[in-house]
Fold these 2 entries.
Entry 1:
Amino acid sequence: MTTVHIHSSRKDNHPSTEYPGLTNEFDMEHAKKVEEVRSLLKEVGKDTLKALLMIDAVQRLGIDYHFHGEIEAVLERLYTKFNMSDCHNDLHELALGFRLLRQEGYYVSADVFNNLKDKEGKVQGKISQDFEGLMGLYEASQLSIKGEDILEEMGNFSSQLLNAWNTNDDQSQARIVRKTLRHPQHKSLAKFMAKSFLNDFQGTDGWINVFKELAKMDFNMVKSIHQKEIRQVSIWWKDLGLAKELKFARNQPLKWYMWSLAVLPHPSLSERRVELTKPISLVYIIDDIFDVHGTLDELNLFTEAVNRWEYEAVEPLPDYMKTCFNALNGITNEISSKVYEDYGWNPIDSLRKSWAILCNAFLVEARWFSGGHVPKTDEYLKNGIISSGVHVVLVHMFFLLGHGITKRNVDIVDDFPGIISCTATILRLWDDLGSAKDENQEGHDGSYLDCYMKENPGMSIENARCHVTHFISETWKLLNRQCLPPNPFSSCFTKACLNVARMVPLMYSYDGNQCLPSLEEHMKSLV
């Protein structure tokens, strides 16, 4: 008998999806199309597979934020159905339902996939011919958690068969297989994959065209919001003056904004995206101070100043560091004031603490480099997940979102919880894979890869990279578990953490020219 555990209450603090001022014909037509899709989702009835395909489509097209209520209603019915073992005969329905439920925070046991085995424990041969089912099975395997051997087995089984399918004469089908294997839905950003899905989204059902029409209209509406945000970020960055004062540091406000755009995609979070870009920018700038410019004595002084956050500690700093600290202080005060005004909680202690922890980690790395010390892998990674900057950014994001701000949750966020540390580990390991050499930056970064190879003499670079890739995959399993009950955080914050991990490959896949072609392509299409 399949065991399914009841999910705890999930905090679905979804922002409002209303657009201000529906005044022109396009806006009215867009609103009409939203309601048309809403009706289709409500009227789908007992056809479970069709309902799941619709939910999958709106999520892949990036228009699901309009339909949280309708999606929740379908998934609640589906969860009950899974509990009664009532949909386990159709592989496509089973795999897709499992993935969508887990993605939305429902805990469904992976034991449901044991039904795909015969009495001898072997995978039933008939499913090897089910193309849609195999695609769904591979996608579902991406949501596995530690100890779920059946999902691991099904992931390997489906990927082997799909790789063979990749050589199929049907070029369209082969292309879709390649995309799925390279960019499974759970580990990809819908915002950046939507156009590709739109091109592949074909069928004779009338609802498909309605969904595509809304997606195209929605893209144009949301694009105008993004363009406004980019102008706001550009003005802020220029007025801040750090690009002029710190010429050695990176000057990439659009790239930094892309983090915010990826992490908080909901159109209504416009102000939050602009505000989140500010601490993200400072992470990069302070990283450059430690990595490419500051002397060890100066870095000690700067770290002390950030830990103390007092005028007396700032006074001995060189001018360029005073400029940076003043910007940091101003941004921290500004965000603290906004959070207090919006939610009645002053986060200034948490924000200052997160910056101090980051600078302490940067200083450890600076001392390692200065002394020629190559740390053990565990020592390096323990410090490296802090120096990734993920904790600082997600602490700011937690307060900017304002969901579930209680003393208990603030203490959890301050203390580097698993959902943040897993995300930071994925970023750190991707960064260290060897291809992550940032544009215009010639610094003194260490690398997990270097530490691992020194610890394992004779290890080839290929095997070392395989080890890191496997480590990333295992960390995803830990992150998947953090997103299931019991989880103290809102679904909005949880999904934002996942989006950081999803964004990492785009941010750290440099080509031979030290550029990010995939990211640059997405930047052009979105803005």
Entry 2:
Amino acid sequence: MEPPTNPGDSPVELELTVENVESALYQLYFDPNMESKNVAQKWLTQAQASAQAWQFCWALLSPDKLPEVQFFGASTLHTKICRHWSDLPTDQHESLRMQLLSHILRFSSGPKMVLTRLCVALASMALNLIPQAWSQPVADMVRAFQPQKPEPEVGSGAEATQDPQAHCLALLELLTVLPEEFQSSRLAQARRAQLREALAGEWTVVCPMLRQLLQSQDSSNQVKEKVLRCLSSWVGLDVPLGESQELVQDCFTTLSNPELFDTAVETIVNAISQPDCQRYVDALVNLTPLVLGLYDQLKTAAQDRDMETSHGICRIAVAMGETHSRVLLEQVEHWQEYLALVNMILFCTGIPGHYPVSETTSSLTLTFWYTLQDDILSFEEEKQAIYLQVYRPVYFQLVDVLLHKSHYPSQEEYTSWSSDDKEQFRIYRVDISDTLMYVYEMLGAELLSNLYDRLGRQLMDPQQSAVWQDTEALLFGFQSIAETIDVNYSDVVPGLIGLIPRINISNVMLADTVMYTIGSLAEWLADHPVMLGGILPMVLQGLVKAELSVSSVSTLKRICRECRGDLGPYAQDILTVSQDVLVKEIHKSSQCMWLMQALGFLLSALPVDDILGRLHSLITPHVQQLDTLAQQESDPTNKQSIIHILGMLSSLFTTLDINRQADGVDGAANPRLTPSQTTHNPVVVVLQQVFTLIQTILSKWLNDSDVVEAVCGVFDKSVRTLLHDFGPMVAQLSEMLGQIYSAFPQASALDLARQMVLIFAGEEHHMSSIKSLIVVLTSATLTIFQQGPRDHPDIAESFMYLHAQILKRKSDMYLSDELDVKALFYCGILSLKFPETPTVKAASLFFTELLSRCKDIPSLGEVLQRDGKLLTETILQAVGGGSPRSLTEHFSDVLLSLNRQCPVLLSQWLEETLQTPGFPAAQVSTEQKHTFSQQLLREQTNKRRVKEIVKEFSLLCRGLQGSGYSDY
């Protein structure tokens, strides 16, 4: 069918006729041109909103139309009823209802999408009329669908009215969408409560009918499935479980029907998961035996590896046990039934198979054990003791089950798993680890003793220790607990530390867990350094294996951080092995960074006289490689190698802090001298030695932001770690930074300069170098702003943060004529207009600091007097819709600062800017603007209140006030 006209030509002027609507629909569905589709979509949306839509929608529902056209007709009806209900005169309500019912009967045999849409439309109409104008909607709907009374106006669809099953399904569809439409509708709170009550009252009509259909021998599976979905929809209204428990009980009988199983599970879970169910204790107690009655079916399914059935039954058991744990625990006379349910859930936790390849059920149960434990431990002491007698043995069983479930499969089987399966299994083990840690609260030290005894027996028995998975699981259990629980006072840890060296770590997964277990005990080793000698060789043994990279390096890092004061005797071994693996490039880049951090901790604790020599021997191979790379051509491979070496130096200097242990254990002065008393800090010595090399690298890679960032990273980490000890480098670095930035401006240089301002602002002998640097950086950045900074949000952000830091730490720099205060002010204005949140946040901080210094620095006061109105106007424009709504709170900070520092001027600027018609948005009236000004000017201290005022005004300007957006 060719469209009679082309809506694409003039979509707005096209007449609203049925033919034109059909034509637009053909264009929307069948025209391959996306632009034409968009034009049609826009026009059809306008058509739906028009008054004529009430008429043309019925013509579109004619039996001779395509299903897509009929669907649009039904959707239009829903849209009109939902959004334009007030346009329809009251005297037409009854005829609309009859027409809708008639069309639902006509479409009861399909198409399904049209039927559903018509049902949703009638449901929406019911929500508009209940309870005053339509007091018994469900009873009326049921009456209208009696198959022996076909509507005479059904016409050509009369044959559909002869089919009782089609009628029944259509009625069930209508009853299903009624609560769903209520849930999805946007309603005022009072109206929602009124409708909820009215609909819940209709349940007395719906429930018996659903029960009758579910029990009837004549009902097809299709009807029964629809009954289940209908019940699922109504329980969302918190209908009383006391009234529907018989219907829910009937649902359990459908679980034996494979076609209905999935829907029945969903319905039962929904029905018993409603929090309101807890009020109906008797109903819950009556339902518990039905859940337990599924145990045999569950065991059979598990035995047959029927994952779908076991998964579904597990969901029901967990829903009952977890949602109503406390209520069922308190039914003392039924304690055995609840214990049986807990054991059923324990079976689900330990269901045979490897997650997630041959079972997906066990993960559903883990949160149940948290809930049960919390409920038991929340009882008062005497009652708690009784419950613990019953449930502690269950939790010990749970530990066994969880450790078994955490077993890796055989190496061969594990290799065949997909990467997605391996990742899911990893996450599953993390969840088990968290559960074990939580269970420790209930089982305490006895749990650790239990694990230790089993590990000891295993390692002493050659036959048992041959099964590496058992050993790995027990260590995994230990590690899970030791990661978060303070095991310093545990009497089994010394024994465990003694057992670990006996473990054969030829299997990679076992070796990984051994490493992580040692790492989790690093704090314990710091308190018992005598045990380090037995453990460190194992870690260094792992360090040389690429497959143990992550676990061995992270463990060494933890030991070096926690035990650094006691590693002196082992320092040479650690450094030798580490230097070897770094030179041989055994580890990936990120692990090399961790290893360098570990060595930084280690070196920090050595005698000062030893550090420089060991530091030189550690970094010399890498500095030599860097020197070689600096002489070579600039290509991507060389670039990555340069960045890698610079990154390793950064990582080393992040943790190499010889002042970290300047005080003794009990606060007594440490006899060793700090370098400031004798010579330069070893890091400074090294930096001075490689400075020329770094300049050579920069001369070749100056235009590459990654390399420049890596260079700045080395100095940034050093400044942050060394603080004032970095002083000897300030002059050199300031000069180099200025040269870098002038040639090729980059945000990393500004960030490094900010760090130097933060640390050395109070040291006058460094300030001339830093001041010269700031002048150079500012001049170069002003040039960028003059040329247009939009492509450099990172530079704008870092520049604003730099000057905010200067204002905070060394504001007298602004007394100099070398800083163009007016230009900086305009840079701030431009930065406020960026859409990027970090840039706006930085600019807001800049203005907040600037405004607080206006009274002390005349040049700042002058620029504020002259351009404060521009700042106010910029912020109001942004708040009014010029910037994303998420940035509003940053603008409110600047307005609060303005009000604190110059309230009279702000009052004047607000009055002058807001009197412009349509500013900052056409949606706000003069009265609303005046109210905003008055509210704002009243608040000079309450930051939260100012944010609320500005947010509310922003919503008004955007036409969103009262739309629900104000809640977000």
